[in-house]
Amino acid sequence: MNNTPTTEDRIWSAIAHLSALTMGVGLVLPIVGWSSYRRKSNYVAFQSLQALGYQSLGYTIWILVALVIVVVQSLSTLSKMVAAANNGADFGSLTAMGMGGHFAVMFGLMGLYFALPIIAAITCALGKDFRYPLMGNKLARYLGYDTITSNEEQTWLIEDHEDRWVAAMGHFSVIIIFWGMLTPVIAWMMQGKRSWFLKFQAVQAFVFQAGTLLLYFGAGIICFGGALFFLASIGTSGALDFESPAVMTSMIVFLVSMLCASVVMLIVPLLHIMGQWAGYRVLKGDEYRYPWIGRLLEKRLAKQ
Q1: Can you give the pTM of this predicted structure?
Q2: How many CA atoms lie within 13 A of 254 on its CB side?
Q3: What angle do CA 291, 293, 299 make, to 5 degrees?
């Protein structure tokens, strides 16, 4: 990149990276930065798209890494606790050390997650070209950023790849509860008129995320409602009278509500996986449509 970023470019790029510190809410700023500067500054557009990728795709990768580490660490701690119990060792101190190790690992991962966007913001504030590990160079090649020079005729990022990246991040962000919907909504609002592809992908990503969110909260409402009904049937005494039809009915309602909530909570992770698959397909160049809702939304949008 031969063009030297201006002060305004540096500020916007730094803000786009720092928005990762807000854990979800900041998804708005990278899209606004990219949308506002995509045909003004390749530097801001690329850094904003990087920041968007880190907060959506990167967040997904961090979650998976954290889960793997926690599972491995838990199995290791459990095996040590079993061995300690068999050998008559101090079980309490080993448990405390295991819990302390878990907290240390989790805080360490969080610190590393926040450290990268801070380093990125400082680098951009100095006017340098920052690349996130693993993602940065690949994204630069995908967008054609490395081939841009300061010739007489200005060259911008590859438009189709820009739209596909933003659309894919809208799908990937389904794993971010509630705030993930900001990605497709803002992309739809700011660039929907320019790009039919981005508009359709953003709309179906938003509808899919909204449905997933409703299922998530619906499971909580079902569980809470069943528990509340059960407690109300017991009364203020708190005694369980199994001969009472009301108590037996409330217990059945409670168990059924717990079962329904459990089924829903098993479905939600599958929907998260479907969202990741949708993002991958879009990046690969497919015109992806979610089952059922994709075709329906496409027809409705085509009539507008």
Answers
A1: 0.83
A2: 14
A3: 120
Find the helix packing angle between 196-234 and 182-191, rounded to 10°: 150
Cβ neighbourhood burial of 120 (10 Å; 0-12, 13-18, 19+): buried
Output b/e per residue, 62-83; b: 16+ Cβ within 10 A.
beeeeeeeeeebeeebeeebee
Structure tokens at 16: 């786009």
**pLDDT tens-digit profile, the chain (304 residues):** 446 899 999 999 999 999 999 877 899 999 999 999 999 999 999 999 999 999 998 888 888 887 788 777 777 777 766 666 666 655 556 666 667 777 777 788 888 889 999 999 999 999 999 999 989 999 999 999 988 755 545 589 999 999 999 999 999 999 888 899 999 999 999 999 999 999 999 999 999 999 999 988 888 887 777 777 777 766 644 555 556 666 677 777 778 877 887 887 788 889 999 999 999 999 999 999 999 899 899 888 887 7
For 236, other C-beta atoms within 10 Å of its C-beta total 7
Per the structure block, which two tokens stand in for 257? 């509500």
N-terminal to C-terminal alpha carbon distance within the chain = 41
Residue with tokens 């002060």: 7
Query: Which two tokens mark 244?
Result: 């009472």
Q: Is the dihedral of CA 196, 199, 200, 201 positive or negative?
A: positive
> Which amino acid makes up residue 58?
G
Phi then psi for 292, rounded to 5 degrees? Answer: 70, -65
Nearest Cα neighbor of 147 from 67, 42, 48, 71 is 42
Helix (H, G, I), strand (E, B) or coil at 146: helix
Q: Residue 273 and residue 278: Cα distance in Å, rounded?
A: 9
- Six-digit token pair at 194? 């320019």
